[in-house]
Specification:
heterodimer; A: 326 residues; alpha/beta; five-stranded parallel beta sheet; 8 helices; globular; B: 262 residues; nine-stranded mixed beta sheet; two-stranded antiparallel ribbon; binds flavin-adenine dinucleotide
């Protein structure tokens, strides 16, 4: 018997979708392990985020808000997850594979002397044993890992691989986690937002990416973003576009950018170099638009349209938008 | 300040064929190992800090790797680091994140440090979990995803990236910081640097030289690799030559509809 604990990452009272995906997945895993499910929500806005998480059916939500939790980015989150894990006993701990999730996951694993597997695209239980599947080496190999010599196992899970579904019975048990009033070594300022809050490439189920073929920053605003929005997706980019300063690094897909698994990836004016490919090769469907039929992406795109992106994208956006009206 | 930069040796991404389809094992022979590209940003950040402080601060490269990794450590030295320390021991084979972090910590306690700089992630296992784990094991503050860094010797002032922008963070040394590629543009080793690197010291540690009391390598690992599989290669798909925008857009629209992606 083993419980399953989900770290609910939240921002100003809103849980991140990936955490809700994990909450849904946790219930199947807990059934297979014969244990209960828990969620841990911490930081400013935690109570509000817990309310929004209730619908996803975790057994108990442990909430830590106020006091030190508001002033520091990571440490109190680690303390909260550690406290909930120690109270639950031997458990499988799921964290999102995001900037915050990776930090919290690795540090809790260290404190619990637990194993950790990363960027999982599947988590399964057979005969009480948990195994996790992760694409590694940029998707060139798929590893299956299990835990040994450890009571706790931490898994960081890639966003977008499980569905978030409201559960038949919502969470009825909310518990307050009281954290010790300790001083942390790190002093944080307030977050400075540089971009309008928009869907990140890691979480979007559709990503439209632009590359050097765009020729400058404007087409990201006039072509790529409207198409991404019409498809309900996010804007990505190749390194060439990022290095040219056309779009911030947060949008970069690839070896030195983000590794993503959207259902649909549209590469616009991107040649598909190996370092780009390793970031997106696990996408469900890949569509490429390129004026050259002999680019590397031709070898792995499900559809390559050979033509001028400046003519194709506005037309496509119009058709997708027209479809939405119906 | 004593600045340590941790670097990992990874197989070159350009060497595309790295899984033996028969044994389903990583092909290590004939594959060139390189310095993890993310670690070059950490080295550059360390060198800039040393240059700016200009007070006798030192930059030491640290890696946990087989002895054959020396060659790659020389590249880091050629960029301008002062010296290097390698933790090398056959017993470390099969280490996982936990084992790696504990062994690194044992060696780093031995060398001493004011600041440890790490890359964001490796390009082989790509976990990005070592920096946080290592900071916990060392019991020092761990500050990750940093894109701006300065220090007066006792405090680190930094900017940490977030999903929407950044936050300013300050922390007292000793501390561990991981940096992103937004922090700088790594320099190329100069000819003088390359020549000079040959004479710089690479100090070798084995497990016996550091205070490591855990089971090492695969014996002590908390994870086990059950399977390593080659995913089916993505196939070449449909190609449509579009005479104009209407035809190109139509081809994509129909395809998305057929795949139920609209
Ligand atoms: C260590 C390392 C790490 C790297 N990490 C990354 C990474 O994370 N992500 C990444 O993307 N790259 C990365 N790279 C860089 C990578 O090798 C390529 O240089 C980069 O991906 C190329 O970007 P691109 O496809 O936008 O540009 P290009 O290769 O220049 O391709 C532009 C494409 O646009 C097409 N085009 C031009 N005009 C039009 C038009 N009007 N209509 C249609 N098509 C048009 C061209 O035919 C061309 O194929 C890395 C490289 C190294 C060495
Ligand atoms: C395909 C594959 C899958 C793996 N899966 C797992 C897994 O699920 N769980 C697990 O516990 N282990 C796993 N491992 C083992 C793990 O990669 C090693 O333990 C490794 O040393 C941890 O580094 P990383 O690549 O994850 O580093 P990251 O955390 O991605 O690297 C971040 C930074 O840490 C520093 N660093 C990392 N390793 C070293 C080192 N050896 N010497 C000096 N500095 C270093 C570097 O500065 C680097 O930039 C896997 C290994 C491979 C090859």
């Amino acid at each position: 018997m083993r419980d399953v604990i989900v770290f609910i990452e939240q921002r100003a009272g809103a849980p991140r979708r990936v955490s809700l995906e994990l909450a849904t997945k946790a219930q199947d895993l807990a059934t297979a392990l014969g244990g209960k499910t828990h969620g841990v929500v911490a930081g400013a806005g935690a109570s509000q985020a817990a309310e929004a998480t209730k619908a996803f059916g975790l057994g108990t939500l442990h909430v830590a808000e106020g006091g030190v939790t508001a002033e520091y980015l990571i440490d109190p989150l680690v303390d909260a997850l550690e406290a909930a894990a120690k109270a639950a006993g031997p458990a499988l701990i799921l964290v999102p594979n995001t900037m915050i999730g990776r930090d919290v996951g690795s540090r809790v694993a260290a404190r619990l002397d637990a194993g950790i597997t990363s960027d999982a695209t599947d988590v399964t239980v057979a005969n009480g044993k948990v195994s996790t599947v992760s694409p590694k080496l940029g998707g060139l190999t798929i590893t299956t890992c299990a835990f040994k010599n450890t009571e706790y196992g931490v898994v960081s899970v890639r966003p977008n691989v499980f569905a978030a579904k409201p559960a038949a019975s919502p969470t009825s048990s909310l518990e307050t986690l009281t954290l010790p009033a300790k001083k942390y070594g790190m002093k944080m300022g307030a977050e400075v937002e540089e971009a309008a809050p928009e869907l990140g490439v890691e979480e979007a189920s559709t990503v439209v990416s632009g590359g050097r073929g765009l020729g400058g920053p404007e087409p990201f605003t006039t072509l790529i973003k409207p198409l991404a929005e019409a498809l309900g997706g996010a804007v990505g980019a190749s390194r060439a576009a990022v290095d040219a300063g056309w779009i911030p690094h947060a949008h970069q897909v690839g070896q030195t950018g983000k590794t993503i698994s959207p259902s649909l990836y549209i590469a616009v004016g991107i040649s598909g170099a190996i370092q780009h490919k390793v970031g997106m090769r696990t996408a469900g469907t890949i569509v490429a638009i390129n004026k050259d039929a002999n680019v590397p992406i031709a070898d792995f795109a499900d559809l390559l349209v050979v033509g001028d992106l400046f003519q194709i994208i506005p037309e496509l956006t119009k058709r997708v938008e027209a479809e939405k009206v119906h | 300040m004593k600045i340590i930069v941790t670097v990992k040796l990874v197989p070159d991404t350009n060497a595309d064929k790295r899984i033996d389809p028969g044994t389903k094992r990583l092909v290590r022979t004939g594959v060139e190992n390189v310095l993890n590209p993310f670690d070059e940003y950490a080295i550059e950040a360390a060198l800039q800090l040393r240059e700016k402080r200009n007070d006798g601060s030192t930059v030491t490269i640290f890696t946990m790797a087989p002895e054959s990794g020396k060659e790659i450590v020389r590249k880091a030295l050629a960029m301008g680091a002062d010296d290097a320390v390698m933790l090398s021991d056959p017993k470390l084979e099969g280490s996982d994140i936990a084992g790696t972090a504990h062994a690194m910590a044992a060696a780093l306690k031995k060398t001493g440090f004011d600041l440890i700089l790490c890359g964001t992630q490796s390009t082989d296992a790509i976990t990005g979990e070592v920096p946080g784990f290592l900071a916990e094991v060392l019991g020092v503050p761990g500050l990750t995803y940093v894109r701006k860094l300065d220090s007066d010797g006792t405090t680190i002032n930094a900017q940490r990236e977030t999903d929407l922008g950044y936050v300013d963070v300050s922390v007292a040394t000793p501390a561990l910081v991981s940096v992103t590629k937004a922090i700088n543009e790594p320099r190329y080793p100069s000819l003088k640097g390359i020549m000079g690197a040959k004479k710089k010291e690479i100090k070798m540690f084995s497990l016996a030289d550091v205070d490591f009391t855990r089971a090492a390598g695969s014996d002590g690992a908390k994870t086990e690799l059950l399977e390593l599989a080659t995913p089916p290669a993505r196939q070449k798909g449909r190609v449509v030559n579009a005479a104009d925008g209407t035809e190109g857009a139509g081809a994509i629209f129909d395809f998305l509809r057929e795949k139920k992606l609209l």
